[in-house]
Amino acid sequence: MKEKIIAKATDMFLKMGFKSVTMDDIACEMCISKKTIYKFFSNKEALIEEGTAIVNNKINSLMDEVISKNYNAIEENFKIREMFKEMFQSLDHSPAYQLKKHYPEIWDKMMASKIEDCNEMFGQNISKGIAEGLYRDDVNIDVYIKFYYTLIFSINENTQLESEALLLEKEALEYHTRALATPKGIEELEKQLQTNYK
């Protein structure tokens, strides 16, 4: 029952907003009593925290799946972006923006672990791109990682509409890739832009 509550609540939070969905709404949607929810979760914040952890795990496993397909470094980034687009494009409001605005402590905790994950993933992608001759070999990898996640997180934290966030993320990816790319990398970037944004 606990897993069912988390799944339903998370779905509702993402679609309707973390702030607007109440424990009553979740109980009503599931045809259970509010008491049943409180048996597993002391309050709404505890439920949100577990829900965001599950979404994070899902995102991480989907990213691992993309990485395991062994695309070149630039195509890999576009495939990961496409995955995010598919996951979130049906939402009206950015879940990240809502979470930061209404539940900053949960947001901060989530961000601490995300930064670690992103450091590793972006670092591997840049190293891979250098080895493939798509990225310049004179870049300071740590600095470029910091630039890119600052851009991406800033977009998600400060953009209310999910559609706008997705558009800005596409621009950020192009910007990031152009900054890193060799002439061969620019060719691959143009190919990906043509393929993904006809």
From TrEMBL:
DNA-binding residues: 22-41
Keyword annotations from UniProtKB, A to Z: DNA-binding
Taxonomic superkingdom: Bacteria
Molecular function GO labels: DNA binding
UniProt-listed Pfam families: TetR_N
Stored Gene3D superfamilies: Tetracycline Repressor, domain 2
Domain HTH tetR-type: 1-59
Matching InterPro entries: Homeodomain-like_sf, HTH-type_Tx_Regulator, HTH_TetR, Tet_transcr_reg_TetR-rel_C_sf
Entry-linked PROSITE patterns: HTH_TETR_2
Record-given protein name: Transcriptional regulator, TetR family
Organism: Flavobacterium terrae
